Each structure stands twice: as structure tokens, then as C-alpha cells.
Amino acid sequence: MATIESLKKQTLDLMHTIQDISAATSVLNWDQETYMPSGASAMRAEQISTLSTLAHQLLTGDKAKSIASDIISHKAETFKDPILRLFVEDHEESVKLPEDLVRRTSKTQSLAQDIWKEARSKSDFSLFAPILSELIELKKEEADCRTYVDSRYDALLNIFEPGITAEQLNPIFDNLRISTKKILDAIEPVKHTVSDAPMMKQYEANKQMEFSKLIAEKMGFNFNNGRLDLTAHPFCTSFTQYDVRLTTRIKENDLASCLYGVIHETGHGLYEQGFSPEYTRTFVANGASIGMHESQSLLWETIITRTEEFWHWALPIMSKIFPEQTIGLTAKDMYHAVNTIQPSLIRVEADEITYNMHIILRFELERDLINGNITVHDIPELWNLKMKEYLGIQTPNDAQGCLQDIHWSFGGFGYFPGYTLGKLYAAMEWKEIQKAIPDIYSQIAHGEFSSILDWLRKNIHAYGRSEKPGEIIKRITGNSLSEAEFVSYAYAKAGSIYGISF
Fold first, then answer.
1. What is the 3-state secondary structure (H, E, C) of 175-219?
2. pLDDT for res 397
3. Cα separation of 466 and 82, whole Å?
């Protein structure tokens, strides 16, 4: 039987190889979304499928089985090491999935992304429906290979948010639905008093990138180990914490789309750059969950950089880049402009209060798709009905409706709830940051963000996947996940912007 020291070396050798293959796959995915010529999609699907299958073979093969068995035999000692513990956990999850299923899923997902792009550009869901139906069946097959108790959807949800079930989400989402309606009803008589007009002027594309990149650098993103590019749908990916890629999109008549898109992805990027160096090229160097990852982006995007104090610092910088567009504007004008509460069609452009309704809609649809309660062909009609019911909005076309998100095309069923969980985690984290840094608002007003990043590095980033999200939030706050802090924050923010009380 191997010693602990030799066992650790064997584990790291295999883990490094698997992670290198995964990083190469991520490079191909990043290229597909940024610079790859459109005619390369079929061959790219084959390449990604090959690499994904190879990584799966290594994690489920005889060598991995032997290593996992030895780690388990030393469980009292080895499971204290997150690298060894996570190797066993990931191995045990992977062996549940047949190699052929991994190959078919990877190839279909890669093809689906380009088909989704075409369908969205033509605003025609019927073009996407056939391959989406294939993906649904593949994901049902995957869920049945995994472990779940009541809901097949839970098996996929747990890939992205370990320990969470749809049953747990239901009361949380119900309370968010109630609080959102209460806020919308309260501001209805005075909604005309607040406008996002300052953000909706004509802003030159390259200057938007200049301004947004400057903010990202000030937040602490290290561009020596990262870059920023354009894509159809903003995202962050990393190949190690030393190579982190951000992307955004630009609308010349909407500064918020680029600016807050970059801030959001920078929050993700800071998390990716903050993993402890000892976890490089291991399974630990990843976010604890989608929800915890989203909390890092949303903390910056929806809380810190939407304060009036932030605009006391940022507006003078913006004025140098956009002198004509900022004539006569004040920090309070910008504070109001970026916090306007107004139901909207597009999830990524939704305000932080109504955003959760977009997530609840998607959660309900994908849950019912995976559990077999609805079919792919029901999606456009149900989407439009729910948008009308939840946000009072008529959906004009598929591109602005059920085709607006990329997630289902890459098989991300169970992913969407993490966005709202991220808001809940972020509100809980923000409360603790304010306790730890009493003059935090003064620091923000002077463009000083290092103490915030230091707190995040120390309390969240460095740990990577070594703790579950529930364990992290319990350690930080002393409490379990709850919507209470977010609801309290939302009422206070709406009251401040619209001059109302709850």
C-alpha cells in the first residue's frame, strides 16, 4: 500500500494531466466564442469531444480507481487534504457516467452553441429546438446516472450548487417573488422620477472598453495574467489562476451593458486569480459553486459599483473619457441612473431587484423540461406567458425571449439558480465586509478597493473548492443561506432611490 507522501504525488501527477487537458478544452471553448471562424464549428466539436472524453477516461480509468481506493483506505488522514478528498469525490461522480455519454454530450453541446447563435441571430427558436431536444435527452440520461431522491432535476442542480434541491429553492423563490412585487407596487406612482438616461447616450465603443478596463484594473484584476475580449455573450473563463479571460459586448447607446458586464466578469476573474497557489492545476482551483462564484461578481457589479460613493470617484474619470456625455452630471445622477428599477426583457441587463424574476422563470422551465413535465416545443409560449405574468412584459420575438441566453446550448441545466443564490450570498457577505471595514464607503469614494479584495481573498478566494458553499457562508456569517439579507438590502436600496419607505 502506498505511503501518504507517494499517494499525494501519484494523485497530483494524474490530476495535473487531467487539468491540463481540461484547460486545453477551455482554450478551444474560449476561441469558439471569440475568434474562431464560423466554418470551423463541426471540427471544433470533434476536438472538444476528444479532449473531454480523454479527461473522463483518465479520471475513471484503472490508475484513478487504484489511487482513489488507496486514498479511501487512509481516509482518516487523507480526507483532511482537500486535494485528495476532491479527487475521490470527482472520481466517484465521473465513474457514474458512461464514456459514450460523455462523448455524445460534449459533441452535441459544442454543435449546439453555434446553432443557438444562428437561431438567435434569426430570432427563430425552431432552428434551435431539434438540437435542444437532443441535449434535454442527454441531460436526462446523465441525471439518471447520478444520484437524486425525488427530482431528476436535482441531480443536475447539484453539479453547480452542491447540497441544494429544488424543494429548498421553492420557498426562497416564493419570498423573492413577494418582495419583488411589493417593491414594484411601491415605486409605481414615482417610477417616473428616476431615469437611466445618463447611461443611454451615444458612447464610442473603443472608449467604453477603455473605461471598463480601467475600472477592472482598479478593482484589482491582474492583466499580466488575464485579458479582455469581445463576444456575443459575456463570460469569464480561466485555464489556471495565471491565465484568466474576460469577455464583454458593447452597445454604443448603452454604456451599462459593457461597463457592468466587465465589472461582473471581473468579479469572477478576481475569484479565479485568487486561488491559493498550492492548488494550481488541481481540482481545488475552482469556485465552490456557481452561486458562490456569482456572489463574487454580483458583490462588485450590483452592490459596490452601484453606490453613490463609487460614482463620486468614477464620474470624474468617466468625464475625461466622455466629456460631452457627462456635462452637468453628478454622482447622485449616476447613482440613480444605474439603479433604476424597471422590468426588462433581457436578463443580463435587468436591474438587481427584478433580475430574480428572470431566474425564477428559467428555473421553472428547465426543472419541468428535465422532469418531463413539458417539452421543448412548449418553451416559447410558456416563456412569453411567464414574462407577462412575472414582469408585465410582452416578449416581441425569440431573440429577446427564449433564445437570449447561451446556457442551455452548453448543457447548463441547473446553472441558472446559481445567479439568484449568488445575490443572496453577496448580500450576506456585504454585511460582514461592512463590519470588518467600518470606513468602507469612504474607501470606495476614493477609489480604494484593495481592502475589499483582501477580505475576499482571505475569506473566500483562497479556499477554492476546498469547502462547500454552505460551509463557506456559515464560516463567514455564522448563518445558513437565507434570502433575508438580500430582501432587507433590496428594500433599503429601493427606498433610497425612489424616496419611499417599506
1. HHHHHHHHHHHHHHHHHHHCCCHHHCCCCCHHHHHHHHHHHHHHH
2. 97
3. 5
* Average pLDDT, rounded, for the chain: 96
- Taking phi over 0 as left and psi of -120 to 50 as alpha, with beta for the rest, 164 belongs to beta
How far is the CA of 455 from the CAs of 230, 265, 274, 296, 467, in angstroms?
Answer: 30, 19, 11, 12, 17
Q: Is the pLDDT reported for residue 2 higher than 80?
A: no
What is the arithmetic mean of pLDDT over 397-411? 95
**What is the CA 95 to chain-centroid distance, rounded?**
27
The reported pLDDT for the residue numbered 106 is: 92
- Residue 163 backbone zone (phi > 0: left; psi -120 to 50: alpha; other: beta): left
Of 414, 342, 360, the closest CA to residue 164 belongs to 414
265 given a catalytic annotation: yes
Q: How far apart are CA 451 and CA 429, in angstroms?
A: 14
Nearest residue to 141 (alpha-carbon basis) of 108, 174, 117, 114: 108
Instruction: Scan for cell 464620474, then name that residue.
Output: 315
pLDDT tier, 3 (very low <50, low <70, confident <90, very high otherwise): confident
Q: Which CATH number fits domain 166-201+262-498: 2.40.128.490, 1.10.3720.10, 3.40.190.10, 1.10.1370.30?
A: 1.10.1370.30
Q: Which residues neighbour 343 within 8 Å (Cβ) at sequence distance 6 or greater?
A: 184, 350, 354, 357, 391, 392, 393
Instruction: Report the predicted TM-score, pTM, of the whole model to 2 decimal places.
Output: 0.93
CA distance 163 to 148: 11
Out of 33, 265, 272, 301, pick the active-site residue.
265
Looking at residue 239, what DSSP letter applies? E
Q: Where do the structural domains in the chain lie, given as residue ranges?
A: 4-146, 166-201+262-498
Residue type, 295: S
Which amino acid, residue 185? D
